[in-house]
Design a protein that fits this description.
Layout: H1 2-39, H2 44-66, H3 76-103, H4 106-112, H5 116-126, H6 137-158, H7 190-214, H8 221-243, H9 256-283, H10 285-289, H11 292-306, H12 313-354, H13 357-378, H14 384-387
Helix pairs in contact: 1-9, 1-11, 2-3, 2-8, 2-9, 3-7, 3-8, 4-11, 5-7, 6-12, 8-9, 11-12
Length: about 400
């Protein structure tokens, strides 16, 4: 039984880590499939609309059924927060990210998005959601880990080095319909793509911060995810009507475009928004975004298989730095989580003493002991069996509150 309890406790502590690592695999698949769809000419504005339409259709029924009794009322401030979440996530982040992905490559896009932990950490500090005590080792680990993570991502972008031939490289033969190899940068506007990706990352970080604030007042995670996806779908339709004037762009069939929209909507929007909200509620936005560097490593490996992207020596060194920085941030967050857990019990005891309840309970226990001693003194000849029987206790709830 002890071993079973230890395993259950260990699994409970690992659930946030398992959830976030699984999400990175889902995001990596989205990047590869989306890149193939964009290379075939699909408009990223239309892709965003279909993506969040799929997300709304999938997660809304669960929200209606599972949270029908616990769903809070939507006030005007909450509606405005949901409206802004729809703008930051589905509209600004997704459209700018897809545009940057179209100008660059999946690996490059993921490398640029690794600025997300740094942006989120700085914004969380500015919003007073994270406290930085620079003299504490855990805070130093988070700061240094964030810097190292961004440095590793920039190394992958700025330094290539020689090509690292994988074992499977000579067996990979990409399909011609996937487009030109993404490692050929002669015909790509990397500067424009970089700016678009930076804007998308900033919007993504803002989305995480606002989502954490909104969930304090609107605690129904599934309903919040459904509303964000639905509002984002309506906003994306309006943006698409402004940016795309050809009716043919809305055409979608049983092909890679449909797969990209469905996969991105179900996995990268509905499931990811919900899981991120649950993890963020317990560990905060910095913990959620700290896993994003893993997506780049997964995309680099998957890209070498599917898109025949070449893996360079600089990418390998940058990946190592990213993993080191990632675990440095996670170590700092874990130590912070441990401190909060150890401080919770003393604070609760102290709080009880301040309102007088701890003193009252202590006085009642002492009164009970006095009553027991009196009864024993008055009945010395009684057998032990009678003394060990149930003794009426004075009711603790009848004690009057001390008057101020």
């Amino acid at each position: 039984m002890a071993g079973k309890g230890y395993f259950s406790n260990f699994f409970h502590r690992c659930k946030p880590y398992i959830a976030m690592i699984s999400l990175q695999f889902g995001y990596a698949g989205m990047n590869i499939i989306t890149k193939v769809s964009l290379n075939r000419g699909m408009s990223h504005y239309v892709l965003v609309v279909y993506r969040h339409a799929f997300a709304t259709a999938v997660i809304a029924p669960f929200a209606l059924v599972l949270e029908r009794k616990v769903r809070p009322k939507i006030t005007f401030p909450i509606f405005m927060q949901i409206f802004v979440l729809g703008l930051l996530g589905p509209v600004i982040d997704q459209n700018f990210y897809y545009a940057g992905l179209k100008y660059t490559s999946p690996t490059f896009s993921c490398a640029m998005s690794n600025m997300l932990p740094a942006m989120t950490f700085v914004m969380a500090v500015l919003c007073r959601m994270e406290k930085v005590h620079i003299k504490k080792l855990r805070c130093q680990a988070k700061v240094v880990g964030t810097i190292v993570t961004v440095a590793g991502a920039m190394l992958m972008t700025l330094y290539k080095g020689h090509v690292v031939n994988m074992v499977w490289s000579k067996y990979v033969h990409p399909h011609k319909s996937y487009g030109n190899p993404t490692t050929d940068t002669s015909d790509k506007d990397w500067f424009k793509g970089s700016i678009l990706l930076i804007i998308a990352t900033f919007a993504w970080a803002s989305f995480f911060i606002l989502q954490a604030i909104t969930m304090r007042r609107y605690t129904a995670q599934l309903s919040l995810t459904s509303l964000v996806c639905f509002i984002g779908t309506l906003q994306s339709i309006a943006v698409t009507f402004v940016m795309e004037h050809k009716p043919s762009v809305w055409t979608i069939g049983w092909d890679m475009n449909l797969l990209a929209a469905a996969y991105a909507g179900i996995v990268s929007s509905s499931i990811s928004y919900y899981v991120q909200g649950l993890v963020m509620e317990k560990r905060g936005p910095v913990f959620v975004t700290a896993f994003s560097p893993l997506m780049m490593i997964i995309v680099a490996i998957m890209g070498s298989f599917i898109l025949a992207e070449k893996i360079y020596f600089g990418g390998v060194i940058g990946s190592i730095l990213i993993v080191v920085g990632l675990y440095s941030v996670l170590w700092g967050k874990y130590k912070e989580y441990q401190e909060k857990q150890t401080q919770a019990i003393p604070e609760a005891v102290k709080g009880g003493g301040e309102n007088g309840r701890t003193t009252m309970i202590k006085d009642d226990i002492e009164a009970n002991n006095i009553e027991v001693q009196k009864s024993e003194a008055q009945k010395p000849s009684l057998p032990v069996t009678v003394i060990s029987g149930p003794i009426p206790q004075p009711p603790m709830l009848d004690v009057e509150e001390p008057k101020p």
